[in-house]
From TrEMBL:
Cofactor(s) demanded: pyridoxal 5'-phosphate
Catalytic reaction equation(s): (1S,2R)-1-C-(indol-3-yl)glycerol 3-phosphate + L-serine = D-glyceraldehyde 3-phosphate + L-tryptophan + H2O
SUPFAM superfamilies for this protein: Tryptophan synthase beta subunit-like PLP-dependent enzymes
HAMAP family: Trp_synth_beta (MF_00133)
Residues with N6-(pyridoxal phosphate)lysine modification: 109
Function: The beta subunit is responsible for the synthesis of L-tryptophan from indole and L-serine.
Protein name: Tryptophan synthase beta chain
Residues annotated as domain Tryptophan synthase beta chain-like PALP: 87-398
Listed PANTHER family: TRYPTOPHAN SYNTHASE (PTHR48077:SF3), TRYPTOPHAN SYNTHASE-RELATED (PTHR48077)
GO molecular function, one term: tryptophan synthase activity
GO terms under cellular component: cytoplasm
Protein's gene: trpB
Length: 416
């Protein structure tokens, strides 16, 4: 929330119009504009309000379990040193995990939901709407709505409702109404369209709780700021534990909220290499991936300009990933800007590579990572053996993998 004013900083965006260079903005229907401006006004009020910060910090501590630990992954480090030796390299950096998997509801999503529900309360809203893909953000939204006594409607693609029934049931237990969306392919993109439609028609009383650092301005900024607790903690923790900054930090990118939260506090530390991992799915040659920044083109979706998966007619394409949380055809606009400016590298990891990293981490660390997070670990597995022993890598463990055991079982040809 505090940004240095130096013109060379990577941390000053967005500008007044919500732009990160040519990305971002607010491409919304005229009817939505007053709501967006009202949200922006309220956000500008609370973001430097000590009372708001104190309430959020208190909830983050006692309800969500922050600060999350920065854990030296000794088992994985030892394994990758053996790999390094076997290759005759004799290296292998120290690997740390930022443990967002230990948060209430099992991922980083609660950081954003707590911030936004407090904002909704401040604004005097009476009703919460949210979109969800796999259901993780839907569950986190339903959780904070239950905690604060708001009625909550979650839009979810009909296809996703069918394949994510445990999360649908969780949301219902928490008191939310799940509305299946049959438009399009019935996935996250369609759910987001429907949530935006609901918002326009219920202007007065409704707060739209967006699940990632995308959407029209000011959402990318406010979601980033709520998630930046990840990177701020990690930065202080590594200075405390190792006495210096890491050489490399890695996070997976779906819409980009855990990644931008991890990256933002490090953007002006030039010596820190920053890598975002996209879902490479079954490879970038075909269409079965979700690597919008490696294989997409800039366009407008959900109120902002950003890199998108689109066909030659500019139609948005449905992506594919083994992990439902990385299965979004766009990406938050700040990532598009960081990509083009060269500050952050974006690299695809395939389904199979993520699955291997999932199995490896489970065996050598006794931690079952979310398949999304396993993408980030998979990239560490690739680069760490060639690094020196005194180097440090931090991987953001965005969530836990309990939700993924059915997917993994079927990938392995097993039944639970
Ligand atoms: C939702 C989710 C993601 C992807 O969302 P981002 O906005 O890109 O962070 C990654 N990891 C986990 C565990 C998730 O639940």
């Amino acid at each position: 929330m505090d940004k240095p004013a130096t013109p060379n900083s990577f941390r000053t965006g967005p500008d007044e119009q919500g732009m990160f260079g040519i990305f971002g903005g607010r491409f919304v229907a005229e009817t939505l504009m007053p709501l967006i401006l009202d949200l922006e006004r309220n956000w500008n009020e609370v973001k430097n309000d000590p009372d708001f910060k104190a309430e959020l910090t208190d909830l983050s501590t006692h309800y969500a379990g922050r600060p999350s630990k920065l854990y030296f992954a000794e088992g994985l480090t030892r394994h990758l040193r053996e790999v390094s030796s076997a290759k005759g390299l004799g290296g292998g950096a120290k690997v740390y995990f930022k443990r967002e998997d230990l948060n209430h509801t099992g991922s980083h999503k609660i950081n954003n939901c707590l911030g936004q529900i407090l904002l909704a309360k401040r604004m005097g809203k009476k009703r919460i709407i949210a979109e969800t893909g796999a259901g993780q953000h839907g569950v986190a939204s339903a959780t904070v709505a239950a905690r604060f006594g708001f009625p909550c409607v979650v839009y979810m693609g009909a296809t996703d409702v069918a394949r994510q029934s445990p999360n649908v049931f969780r949301m219902k237990l928490l008191g939310a109404e799940v509305r299946p969306v049959t438009a399009g392919h019935g996935t996250l993109k369609d759910a987001m369209n429907e949530a935006l439609r609901d918002w326009v028609t219920n202007v007065e009383d409704t707060y739209y709780l967006i699940g990632t650092a995308a959407g029209p301005h000011p959402y990318p900024e406010l979601v980033r700021d709520f998630q930046s607790v990840i990177g701020s903690e990690a930065r202080a923790q590594i200075l405390e534990q190792e006495g210096r900054l890491p050489d490399t930090i890695i996070a997976c990118v779906g819409g980009g909220s855990n990644a931008i939260g991890m990256f933002h506090p490090f953007l002006d530390d030039k010596e820190v290499r920053i890598i975002g991992i996209e879902a490479g799915g079954r490879g970038l040659d075909g269409i079965e991936h979700c690597a919008s920044m490696n294989a997409g083109r800039p366009g407008v979706l959900h109120g902002n300009r950003t890199y998108l998966l689109q066909n030659s007619d500019g139609q948005i394409m449905d992506g594919h990933s083994i992990s439902a949380g990385l299965d979004y055809p766009g990406v938050g606009p700040e990532h598009s800007w960081l990509r083009d400016s060269g500050r952050v590298e974006y690299v695809p990891i395939l389904d199979d590579e993520a699955l291997e990293a999932f199995k490896l981490t489970t065996r050598v660390e006794g931690i079952i990572p979310a398949l999304e997070s396993a993408h980030a670990i998979a990239h560490a597995v690739k680069i760490v053996p060639a690094m020196d022993k005194d180097q440090i890598v931090i991987v953001n463990l965005s969530g836990r993998g309990d939700k993924d055991v059915h997917t993994v079982a079927s990938m392995l040809g097993m039944e639970i």
